[in-house]
Amino acid sequence: MNTPHRRPVGRRAALITGLAGGLLATAAGRVRAATDARATVPATVLPALPPMAQLHAGGPTGLLGVARDGGLWSIPPQQGTPRRIAEGLDPATPLASGHGRVAARTAQGGLWVLDVASGQAGHQPEAALAPHAGLLVLPLAVLGVAAAGHRLLRFEPAADGRWQVVARSQEALLPDARPLQADLDGRGDGGHIVVLAGPDAQRYRHGVLGDAVEATRVLWLERHGLSVLRALTLPAPHVFEDIAPRPVALPQPGGATGLLTVRAGPDGGQLALLRADPAQPGQLQLAGLGEPVGGFHRWLAPTTDGRHIAAVHTPHIGGVLHSDRLDGGRLARRRLLDGVSTHHIGSRETDLAVWLQGQLLLPSQDGRVLRRLNPDQDWAEHPALALPGRVVQAVALPDGAAWVGLLEDGAVLLARWPTVPPGNQR
């Protein structure tokens, strides 16, 4: 992560001190100072940490960070001292956690897995995992993407503490694909593995997400043997300009899950909602398409809490937030808010928005103001929060009561709102 301009520590401290009086409210698309002291939200830089390269919601205390020097830190978001629990990790590859484990890529490309309960770490130093690609922790395995050929690998623990490859996909994935688990058939079995595949470096040379290699296929792989259960292939000239689709509930009986992603082509990006039709085994279908942004190499950044769908159109040049809903075979959009951005050009961090207690929190265009909207109150905007620096990553803590942001200089900022009972969110 580059830091072309670092603010002096003293100035950041002064800005933090003034956060209580620097709370902002928005009217007519402009941010003005808030005067209602009741709206004040404590926001503090977490102390005793080196500059961080990434954050992850999970682990022993609910928050993990990888420092720029490759150290893994367990960060108490309440009280307590941050603890360095590992060395030698790749700061550019995202962490994964779940089922009592934390998984990471080492700086040399190996697999490193921590058992949280015992504190013991297993490894596979010869794993040769792809840089930037995601990991996925399953109850009995860890999935990762191989650097050579970009196949999906399933690792399981061996008796000696090492992790061994037990299955490999036949299909080539996007080199920086982020595998996820989704129950597309609604069977209630935890679901299988969704990945973007069919890498192509010629169809759509935009490079907004870090390189010019884009996906042309979405695969749903059986989680044990990694065989293809369902697939959707885009014809030229279209691609999926994304790293990982997002699970979203479909508005139909049975609790079906769809996948929200971005299809891009000559008219720019457009939202695409995919689904599995039980009547058509082996296939994924387009359940709905949004209107293209308009203009070659124009992009939009989707975000969802699994229920609401939103997207920031052209997040690098103006940034206009829209909400979308499925209406027949199309995603009908509504313009909500100008001057926001949930992506920095060239970054693989595709969504800087956070859904917290039923609200959508997203940065302003310059990344220095956190704006809040409530979709269950017709997207009403609540008082915003001034930030002491540009935010480059954001997560919600597992308890649902705090937003944590990584600032451009590597500092970690926490803002905690009072917990809102579910019945009072509307």
Helical fraction: under 10%
Residue share in β-strands: 35-45%
Q: Mind telling me the C-alpha Rg?
A: 21 Å
Helices, by number, come to: 1
* Largest sheet descriptor: 9 strands, mixed
Shape: globular
Category by helix and strand content: mainly beta
Task: Enumerate the spans where pLDDT stays under 50 for 5 or more consecutive residues.
Answer: 1-39
Q: What's the total number of strands?
A: 35
Q: Distance N terminus to C terminus?
A: 38 Å
Overall mean pLDDT: 88
Task: Characterise the protein shown here.
With 426 residues, the chain is mainly beta. The protein has a domain of 181 residues. It contains one helix and 35 strands. The strands form eight sheets. Strands 20, 21, 22, 23, 24, 25, 26, 27 and 28 form a nine-stranded mixed sheet that branches. A hairpin with a 4-residue loop joins strand 12 and strand 13. The N terminus is likely disordered.
Question: How are the secondary structure elements laid out?
Answer:
Layout: H1 9-17, E1 24-27, E2 30-33, E3 43-45, E4 52-57, E5 63-67, E6 72-74, E7 83-86, E8 96-98, E9 101-105, E10 111-115, E11 121-124, E12 136-137, E13 142-145, E14 152-157, E15 163-168, E16 180-182, E17 192-197, E18 217-221, E19 228-233, E20 239-240, E21 246-249, E22 257-265, E23 268-275, E24 285-290, E25 300-304, E26 309-313, E27 320-327, E28 330-338, E29 354-356, E30 359-363, E31 369-374, E32 380-386, E33 391-396, E34 402-407, E35 412-416
Parallel strand pairs: 24-28
Antiparallel strand pairs: 1-2, 3-35, 4-5, 5-6, 6-7, 8-9, 9-10, 10-11, 12-13, 13-14, 14-15, 16-17, 17-18, 18-19, 20-22, 21-22, 22-23, 23-24, 25-26, 26-27, 27-28, 29-30, 30-31, 31-32, 33-34, 34-35
